[in-house]
Amino acid sequence: MVHEIEVKGILSTKNGMNLYRGCSHGCIYCDSRSKCYGFTHDFEDIEVKSNALELLEKALKGKRKKCMIATGSMTDPYIPLERKLGNVRKALSLAEKYGFGFSLITKSDLVLRDIDLLASINRKAKAVVQMTVTTINDDLCRILEPDVCITSRRFEALKQLHDAGIPTVVWLSPILPFINDNPSNIAGIVKCCHEAGVERIICFGMGMTLREGNREYYYSKLDEHFPGLKEKYIARYGNSYVVSSVYNNELMHFFGTLCDRFGIIHDNDEIFRYLSEMDESAKPVQRMLSDF
Fold first, then answer.
1. Which of 140, 158, 165, 229 has minimal Cβ neighbours within 10 Å of its Cβ?
2. Of 119, 71, 103, 125, which Cα lies nearest the Cα of 275?
3. Nearest Cα residue to 150 out of 192, 97, 179
């Protein structure tokens, strides 16, 4: 389902925005389902901000200093509805027109539709595409993120973006306890990042978050796809918000070692500074390494 609303503003104080509210990717772990966000409709009922582009153009015209515009923090900008409406592309066109930078987070290869605009923005200012990756296993990806492109296709998209000169960042998140919290998954993701030319990986730890709203949905999907695992979660984590893998320390050390080996930046603070800065700093030269 889809419905339209008018909003009073579009850019946050940190110049972030969401053109849509709700999502149809179906990711079983999505924190945005949490009740604290105040959804008054089904999460899959997409809310379209009908006056968002008008407000965005007005905001960009009124800014004295160019900056990075960001989207994708609550809702993936490239939900299937975007194919029809093209609001993200229109927003990119406005950023390109007025000389602003642009950063977005997605799981979808639909971003490749806009590679021309992203490349143009990157030449004039700065454009960064961030891609979320949770598992190297495409079959598992189809369970965890059923209605968006599989992992291998995401890495193909990352490689095409890199070849077009567009910087990319991967979010290694979430890592689900007892499901994808293993060294082979982490190693596979980091290696594929290197091969796709990804220079930065964000990871806040090996685990996930659960709170009212998304916890119930996640547990229902565990019952559907991983019988008996819900009880294991309840016994170990109770109602904890932060749900860390029992292997967190070992996997984080392993992750950091691999990133250093491949010359991939993994300091979150450094990456967030990079994402927020209009002027792109010199890109690191990645070392050529043999397979590990």
1. 165
2. 103
3. 192
Burial track 228-263 (b if 16+ CB lie within 10 A, e otherwise): ebeeebeeebeeeeebbbebeeebbebbbebbeebe
Task: Please write the tens of the pLDDT for every residue from 254-274.
Answer: 999 999 999 999 999 999 999
Instruction: Report residue 172: phi and psi, to 5°.
Output: -90, 85
99 contacts 125 by C-beta, under 8 angstroms: yes
Distance CA 291, CA 39 (A): 46
Q: Tokens standing for 205?
A: 């730890």
- Phi-psi region at 197: left, alpha or beta (left = phi > 0; alpha = psi -120 to 50): left
User: 290: number of CA atoms within 13 Å, CB side?
Assistant: 0
Residue 265 DSSP symbol: B
What lies within 8 Å, CB to CB, of 215 at 6+ separation is: 239
